[in-house]
């Protein structure tokens, strides 16, 4: 039978069936008072805690930690808070947000808030160190009995963005925990906005002012969202009085005071042995090996989806949630099938930080059956149990920790489960906690078996992030490349000592005969003649200002539209000089010192996945802007988009934008560009000697392993003809004179429709057919691509736009040197087009990088 239970549903939360508030016992004896929102006494009860720092404990009736509650109520409160946060932020900011919950009590609440928010990933702090996962931060919870919180995201980039950070705790009492968290994270990953979410806001006026002052100090906005608000009024000496009560009633067991003055409807009288029974062995000391009979229970195989995290200790994304939603009905059905046929009241018991998965299982069981389902979890928080309807913690089961905790062995607790009349209890733990201690005679399963007719155990596989490969730091000049070390970091491996070059004919013959990929070898570097070098310098002098303006336009567009602090990632090697110039412009115009890297992308093989993994661990993928020199027909644009899509599926890392920022976009293939004119970019005239003396990238199985960056060579021996830095300096020297024009042009472009038309691709298809080539991969449009054909391939002919002037001087010279005809064509959409010979051309390669047989 399926019951209608809405995610945001809030059932009435009542004090108790007979109208007794579950905080009255403490309030009367300590003089504690809850003041404020009228809903507070419905949401909260009071208990006494075994804690030298605070006497009282606010016990939530809707958190699902200490008080068994309908899972729909527990989940509904969190989801509703998440929806309020989404309304506060708006969808755009919500997509950039990260939700952080606090261990252990708020791990499930934070997860539910993230579900309500819907668009953001979720992480909760943890007190369980995990081997191989480096903490991204940590903080202290000053009032807690166990203070150290670790942040262990599988993807460190989770915190590197500047979107809102949503911090979720069950109660907001003094604000110290939030302040400690924000102070730690803001120092590492500053952002503009924080949102604090809690079931109840119980701060004093002074504490509220402290948070406001802190927000002003760090220059960030801090919003607060809570289901109810008020304050706790504490009389003088409350700590000492509380400790006296704990000492007195703790020694008397759970039957403190006389028998209940009224019948207890929610919790029947506790069974014998359900009292606050101390364990043998002091906290922090070793226990003797368990002996005696093992408890009887049935193990349920949930068929938990492979690879799905059991919680958010290492991060939980909307994609993870979608997988869980799809699997929940079948898992709940397996639980229902294992329950006694006459079970009418069932408890799902989660485990410490493992709150969310048991909650969702409980809610699904409640939704799809007519069983009365209740949910709570075990805890490490020591609380006095008093069997009185005016006290929030009626019974307590104590048992030894069973997950090999970092702080050593000790007691753990399940509250209000014994004596509650459950026909069955389903204990849900992760596999790290499925230890001999769990099954021992004094363990949790045994304690539960004494107080319910049936105990079932469901074990969820503990998610363990794969250990990251030990990728090296980027290579930098002068050890690798002639660029200054701050100009670019190369996410490549140095293959300078490997012989990869071969004469063009020999190299292409090997490619064609063996089906080898073009990226498995290198052509011999072209050495420019004196006449060609003169052409380069003349072209640079003439076009420096034009290039400088295009650099300014594309950089201003990126800063305005893509990210205020972009991480520039050039596609090696043609994109590298452009990326450096963009970095220089950002410093010249805005005083920004942007990170810049160069990565390899290979046609038919995609972008270097290890480079992407390195970037994701060190930066927010959403800030990454891929940079290239120019577009031809858009093949690399398409290659990058496909590669990133495949990477997202294989690694689950999202946020990389496939849109390339280019200096020139004559093919109309991208939205982010400096110009769409096809003109001479002097960096296209040469190979390594204008690209930091770095070769084209190499991808060969015997040289590049699965955990390696793609390779490249550093041609130190060509330093005498290197003009790499001279090119950069000549262009950046013109920045001051073109700044106004570049900024005005960028502003104009930002207001126009820059959607790609792909007219370049259409032109290439037309030329391919007109010249009977019948393969667009052999048509290389634009000045830059034509130059590459002349320097690296076996050219057939050059098509030049009629009337093209000095932009083609270097192409004409190369054509003369190689005996290639230059044919003038009217109406050519590009300044020129280079054609690779379609008949038995050893340089002809198809879309997959392999030789084409015609």
Automatic annotation (TrEMBL):
Residues 252-293 are annotated as: Disordered. Keywords: Glycosyltransferase, Transferase. Residues 43-230 form the Orotate phosphoribosyltransferase-like domain. InterPro entries: PELOTA_dom, PRTase-like, PRTase_2, PRTase_dom, StiP_N, TRSP_dom. GO terms for molecular function: glycosyltransferase activity. Residues 481-731 form the Cysteine protease StiP N-terminal domain. This is Phosphoribosyltransferase. It comes from Streptomyces violaceochromogenes.
């Amino acid at each position: 039978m399926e019951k209608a239970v809405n995610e945001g549903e809030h059932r009435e939360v009542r004090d108790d069936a007979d109208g007794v508030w579950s905080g009255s016992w403490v309030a009367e004896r300590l003089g504690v008072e809850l003041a404020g929102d009228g809903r507070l006494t419905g949401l909260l009860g009071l208990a006494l805690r075994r804690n030298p720092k605070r006497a009282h404990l606010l016990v939530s009736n809707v958190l699902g930690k200490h008080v068994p509650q309908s899972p729909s109520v527990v989940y509904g409160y969190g989801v509703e808070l998440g929806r309020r946060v989404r309304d506060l932020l708006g969808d755009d900011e919500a997509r950039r947000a990260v939700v952080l919950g606090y261990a252990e009590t708020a791990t499930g609440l934070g997860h539910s808030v993230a579900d309500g928010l819907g668009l953001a990933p979720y992480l909760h702090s943890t007190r369980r160190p995990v081997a191989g996962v480096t903490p991204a931060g940590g903080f202290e919870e000053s009032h807690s009995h166990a203070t150290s919180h670790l942040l262990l995201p599988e993807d460190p980039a989770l915190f590197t963005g500047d979107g809102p950070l949503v911090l979720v705790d069950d109660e907001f009492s003094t604000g110290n925990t939030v302040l400690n968290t924000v102070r730690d994270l803001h120092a590492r990953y500053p952002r503009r906005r924080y949102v604090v979410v809690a079931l109840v806001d119980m701060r004093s006026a002074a504490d509220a002012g402290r948070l406001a002052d802190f927000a002003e100090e760090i220059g960030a906005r801090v919003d607060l969202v809570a289901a109810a608000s008020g304050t706790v009024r504490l009389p003088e000496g409350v700590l000492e009085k509380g400790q006296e009560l704990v000492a007195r009633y703790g020694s008397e067991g759970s039957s403190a005071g006389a028998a209940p003055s009224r019948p207890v409807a929610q919790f029947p009288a506790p069974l014998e042995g359900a009292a606050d029974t101390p364990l043998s062995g002091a906290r922090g000391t070793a226990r003797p090996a368990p002996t005696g009979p093992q408890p009887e229970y049935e193990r349920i195989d949930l068929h938990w989806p492979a690879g799905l995290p059991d919680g958010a200790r290492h991060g939980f994304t909307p994609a993870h949630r979608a997988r869980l939603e799809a699997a929940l009905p079948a898992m709940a059905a397996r639980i229902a099938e294992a329950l006694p046929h006459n079970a009418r009241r069932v408890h799902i018991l989660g485990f410490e930080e493992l709150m969310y998965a048991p909650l969702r299982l409980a809610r699904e069981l409640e939704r799809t059956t007519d069983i009365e389902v209740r949910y709570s979890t075990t805890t490490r928080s020591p609380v006095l149990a008093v069997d009185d309807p005016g006290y929030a913690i009626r019974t307590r089961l104590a048992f030894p920790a069973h997950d090999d905790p970092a702080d050593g062995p000790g007691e753990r607790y399940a509250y209000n489960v014994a004596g509650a009349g459950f026909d069955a209890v389903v204990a849900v733990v992760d596999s790290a906690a499925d230890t001999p201690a769990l099954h021992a005679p004094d363990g949790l399963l045994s304690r539960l078996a004494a107080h319910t007719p049936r105990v079932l155990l469901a074990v969820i596989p503990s998610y363990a992030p794969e250990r990251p490969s030990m990728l090296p730091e980027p290579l930098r000049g002068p050890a690798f490349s002639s660029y200054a070390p701050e100009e670019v970091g190369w996410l490549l491996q140095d293959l300078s000592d490997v012989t990869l070059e071969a004469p063009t004919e020999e190299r292409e013959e090997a490619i064609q005969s063996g089906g080898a990929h073009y990226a498995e070898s290198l052509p011999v570097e072209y050495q420019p003649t004196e006449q060609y070098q003169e052409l380069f310098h003349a072209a640079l002098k003439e076009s420096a200002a034009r290039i400088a303006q295009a650099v300014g336009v594309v950089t201003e567009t990126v800063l305005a539209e893509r990210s205020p602090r972009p991480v520039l990632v050039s596609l090696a090697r043609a994109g590298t000089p452009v990326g450096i110039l963009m970095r220089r412009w950002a410093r010249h115009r805005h005083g920004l010192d942007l990170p810049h890297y160069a990565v390899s992308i290979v046609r038919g093989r995609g972008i270097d996945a290890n480079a992407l993994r390195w970037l994701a661990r060190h930066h927010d993928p959403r800030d990454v802007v891929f940079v290239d020199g120019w577009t031809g027909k858009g093949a690399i644009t398409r290659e990058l988009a496909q590669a990133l899509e495949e990477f997202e599926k294989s690694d689950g890392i999202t946020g990389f934008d496939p849109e390339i920022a280019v200096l020139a976009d004559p093919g109309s293939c991208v939205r982010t560009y400096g110009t769409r004119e096809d003109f001479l970019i002097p960096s296209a005239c040469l190979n390594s000697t204008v690209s930091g003396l770095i070769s084209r990238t190499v991808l060969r199985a015997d040289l590049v392993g699965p955990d390696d960056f793609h390779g490249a060579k550093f041609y130190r021996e060509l330093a005498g003809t290197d003009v790499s830095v001279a090119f950069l300096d000549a262009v950046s020297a013109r920045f001051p004179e073109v700044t106004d024009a570049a900024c005005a042009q960028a502003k104009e472009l930002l207001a126009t429709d820059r959607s790609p038309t792909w007219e370049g691709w259409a032109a290439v298809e037309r030329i391919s057919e007109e010249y009977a080539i019948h393969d667009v991969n052999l048509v290389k449009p634009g000045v830059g691509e034509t130059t590459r054909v002349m320097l690296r391939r076996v050219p057939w002919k050059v098509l030049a736009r009629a009337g093209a002037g000095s932009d083609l001087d270097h192409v004409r010279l190369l054509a003369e040197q190689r005996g290639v005809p230059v044919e003038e064509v009217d109406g050519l959409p590009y300044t020129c087009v280079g054609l690779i010979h379609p008949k038995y051309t050893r340089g002809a390669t198809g879309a997959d990088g392999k030789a084409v047989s015609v």
